[in-house]
Amino acid sequence: MDFREVIETTGACRHYRPDPVPDEVLARVLDAARWAPTGGNRQGVRFLVVRDPARKTALRDLYVPLWEQYVQRAGARPGAPLPKLIAAADHMARHLDEVPVLLVVCAQLGDLLATDRHLDRLSVVGGGSIYPAVQNVLLAARAEGLGTALTTLLCAVEPQVKQLLAIPADVLTAALVPLGFPVQPFPRRLARRPLTDICFGDAWGEPAFR
Ligand SMILES: Cc1cc2nc3c(=O)[nH]c(=O)nc-3n(C[C@H](O)[C@H](O)[C@H](O)COP(=O)(O)O)c2cc1C
Question: May I ask the CATH architecture of the domain 3-198?
Answer without folding.
Answer: 3-Layer(aba) Sandwich (3.40)
